[in-house]
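Troubleshooting: if your tokenizer reports a length mismatch, compare your output against this known-good record of 403 residues.
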Amino acid sequence: MVFGEIVIVALQSIRANLFRAALTMLGIIIGVGAVITMLAAGAGAQKRIDDQIAALGANILTVNAATFFAGGVSRDRQALVVDDADALREQGRYFNAVVPEAQNRGQLKLDNVNTNCRLSGTTPDYAGIFNYKLAQGRFFTVEENDQRKRVVVVGAEIPGRLNTTPEALVGKSLSVNGQQFQVIGVFVSVGGGFGNQSPDSSAFIPLRTAQQRVFGTDKVDNISVRVVDNASMERAMVDIEQVVRRKHKILPGGANDFAIVDRRSFLDTQQQAQQTFTMLLASIAGVSLLVGGIGIMNIMLVSVTERTREIGIRMALGATRFSILLQFLVESITLCLLGGILGIALGTSAAQMLSRLAGWEVFVSPQSVGLASFFSVAVGLFFGILPARRAAKLDPIEALRYE
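Known-good structure output:
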């Protein structure tokens, strides 16, 4: 038999037992669908992390006040001031933006509605260094910072917390820790963070206003530094350390009273954890493929027994053992491939439902579809070998006698 005839005979055999074939494919359909759904959810999470990395900028370093221990108790050493940021701006060789930030808890009140948030005092370069976009209004200016103006820009979640809209909130007077501030802008949602630590649930005021009118201190909590494009992060970190140590008059061999943090390291850790979790879920879903393959092998063994006389007739008419082997392999692979195609459709639909109903970000990549198709064929080939070999090894005379 030529290969084309073998394929036709295999398809005719599947069509003759269509209901049984559908039940046989069910395990493959569920397995492939589960794999596609899990990989789509993982790819969506990966894309979200990539977007966060892009939003943070690939070249941002943050200088924080270090923590030390005294008497067995953790204490924060408030070591950073605006002068440190000025020194980095003036003496640093690898930076094109330096932004100090002072943080505290804040209470916002609009009419009779109030909410708690993270209150951040910073400079006009803050929005630009982190690529934050404004949905409404504008960010404060250098003049407003120098003149200690009472203006505030809020995160994307704040209008909803105050039972209003971004459009309606801009221009209104808002109570910030008991003082009246004018809302001049609302950020586009940036995501990331937890609770009130998220930029979306924060409020931003000029640094000088925060220090002298709200917080009552000249300390800053951190200084963000944007490294120039042609400099390595390691070289920039050494430059920061040299400048700040010199500013703090730390002697050689003395411990730093500050810490330099590369924010990308947190996202890299999150990225690795997400990839591990995605592979774990895909592996669990892959068990369904294994179960489906075992089911196909079982049905194919039953089919060999049922068609023993047919196999004997084909051999008596000149069919070779290889053509018999190939026929059953084609049947097994076809069942798995059809199940894989239906599973891809099921998984894609399930991923879209997750996106719509649960709000998950999903992405069905061509790689995941190709991978699912490959494994479908591989499962059909692997689990079809035993039934095909059993059929090919039948003795023609004994097969013809089989009732």
